[in-house]
Amino acid sequence: SEMAEKNASQSWFTQFTDYMERETRGVEIGVYTVSGIFLAVACHRMRPITKFRHPSQIPQHFVRNKLKQFGRVESVEPSQTAGPVLRVNHKPPINIFFGNRDTLPVKIAGVTVNHNGLSWLQGVTADRKVEFIPLFMHPDTAECVVFVLPTDQEKRLKKNPRSLDVAEALLSLGFAQTTGVPSEVPLKDKKMRDYYKLLTYVEKKAKNRREGVWKSKLPAPIWPLRLLQDSFDRLLVSLLPQSRRLPQLVR
Hints:
By secondary structure, this protein is of the alpha+beta class.
């Protein structure tokens, strides 16, 4: 009888362990399946390996959420319709396209660039790493806010060097004019509207100083006013923290 009880006990234990093993395996399969679905959805939304070569490839939720992208400017080309176009070699978060040099045509948002601006862009942005934020998609260009990132040398020489906002720099030199706030910008999008207001303010300062194109478009200021303006600008620059000053190159 003891042997029978022992066999019955072992049989019950074997059945129990078999049952638990089957159930656990089912749970594991379920967990892996759900995890795989979430990973697939995340990859579809974030596009970690997608290299953008054309504006139509940039998802609308990237534009809506203003997701930062990175790349290198291969060249700057003139365009009859869009003005200067940056040919950006886009670098996705997981870059597996090391030998691929296809480029995304990028238009600088918020400004109309003149001929001096084209030359400046070719000298300052070509072969430099950039950060860009897609705002509007056009058939031939992606309209973006573009920042030139500090070089390794600038990082060594300066503490927290500032990225260069290309539109702001062009306006400060009088090499571009603002386009105003586009009608597509929603009234509730305060951050974007504030950005366009900043560009308008930078342009106003360039006009007052008769920078670039404004030197020939506007009459020379009365000299006492110019002297006061220059003194005020120097004082303002001296009071600004280093991180908020435009690089010497564009002042």
